[in-house]
Amino acid sequence: MVNPSPPSRVVVTGAAGILGSNLVTRLLADGAEVCGLDLREIAPEPGLTPRRADIRDVPAVKEAFAGADMVVHCAAALPSYPADQIRSIIVGGTTAVLRAARDTGVRRVVHISSTAVYGLPKTVPTTEDHPREPVDTYSAAKAEAEELAEKYRADGMCVSVLRPKTFLGPGRMGLFSMLFEWAEEGRNFPVLGRGDVRIQMLGLEDLVDAVTTVLAAPDEVANDTYNLGAARFGTIREDFQSVLDTAGRGRRVVSVPAHAAVGVLRLLERFKLSPVYGRLLYKLLADSYVSIGKAQDRLGFTPRLSNQEAILRTYEWWRRHRDEPAARGTGRTSREPWRQGVLAMSKVFF
Fold first, then answer.
1. Which residues of 283-311 are buried (b: 16+ CB within 10 A; e: fewer)?
2. Could you count the other beta carbons within 10 Å of the beta carbon of residue 205?
3. Which of 206, 212, 211 is nearest to 230 (CA)?
4. Is 3 domain-assigned?
5. Number of continuous H segments (helices) and E segments (strands) in the chain
6. Taken in order 252, 187, 190, 139, is the CA torsion positive or negative?
């Protein structure tokens, strides 16, 4: 991937999040002037102007965007949020960002979407022309936000839409913290069925590379939609086993009957006793990977990390920081582990 020259002033929404904060660090290192917008506190530093505001507050967003060349819209809700908040933050936030960008003359918006917009596609590798077929509140909100982005693109704004697979890197927790915790405790780790499905992920630094490349690309290249994912990935059994091997406790990935496990997990989800939501559950039962050929050909996107490399980097970070407060959080952000709920009690069986 060609090392791009940064624009002079970039606004990053969700700048306190994992992607946003890493992107801010990269842009500052590349010499850009950055405005970081988030509801959470952001420490000021040379070249960075922090702004604390709700992404749905159009006047506040417009104030942050004044004088900006480009905007990277990273702010979003997690699938674990209540349904009304998911739609409000993702769709309402994207509406505010696009409106503010238009009104303040921002020349390019990079919208961070998700491969969740495809729903549960049976065609793999999934290409960008696959229809959006959302299957839950989160994927429906992501799909609706993309539709908004496309409307502004049709009206003449340069809008890049990036669809990353689940990305991993230092600080990224979520459900992966459960794998890390069980590995560290010397427990086996369950997978549904044989665990022979291939689930593509993406290294955080590769996603940051892609964003900075899109910021510097010509309009005719940037003004498009791109899948992003690892080029090298194996089965979920292989990827999870690499963590258990690194833990050095001699434990293994073990199979559990898929049909029975799905029934139990669906019931637990219904009563909010498990963080494993429906779309994730069914993703673990079938191959899930996208074509990155378009990003490779048009952007020069060359992901450096395999699934295993991204997972193990995240695990090593977790080992060093597991006793910090953020590593024992509520799961409200991607920096925090999701609450395991009833699943924590199932440890005794593994």
1. bbeebbbbbbebbbeebebebebbbbebb
2. 18
3. 206
4. no
5. 13, 11
6. negative
β-sheet bridge partners, residue 253:
189
Are 61 and 163 contained in the same domain? yes
Both 247 and 159 in a single domain?
no
User: Domain check: are 338 and 241 in the same one?
Assistant: yes
> Do 39 and 77 sit in the same domain of this protein?
yes
pTM comes to 0.91
Q: Are residues 132 and 183 in the same domain?
A: no
Alpha-carbon gap, residue 184 to 243, rounded angstroms: 9
Range of the domain at 249: 176-199+233-288+307-349
Residue 267: CB atoms within 10 A of its CB come to 12
C-alpha–C-alpha distance, residues 65 and 333, integer Å:
24
Q: How many residues does the chain have?
A: 350
Q: Are residues 71 and 136 in the same domain?
A: yes
The span from the CA of 88 to the CA of 191, in Å, is 34
**Residue 157: CATH number of its domain:** 3.40.50.720
DSSP 290: B
Same domain, 36 and 83: yes
Nearest to 33 by CA among 41, 42, 21, 24: 24
List, in sequence order, every residue forming a beta bridge with 110; answer none if it has no partner. Answer: 72, 160
pLDDT 10s digit of each residue in the chain, 350 long?
544 555 689 999 999 999 999 999 999 999 999 999 999 999 999 999 999 999 999 999 999 999 999 999 999 998 888 999 999 999 999 999 999 999 999 999 999 999 999 999 989 999 999 999 999 999 999 999 999 999 999 999 999 999 999 999 998 877 788 899 999 999 999 988 899 999 999 999 999 999 999 999 999 999 999 999 999 999 999 999 999 999 999 999 999 887 776 666 666 566 565 555 556 666 778 899 999 999 999 999 999 999 999 999 999 999 999 887 654 444 455 555 555 555 565 665 67
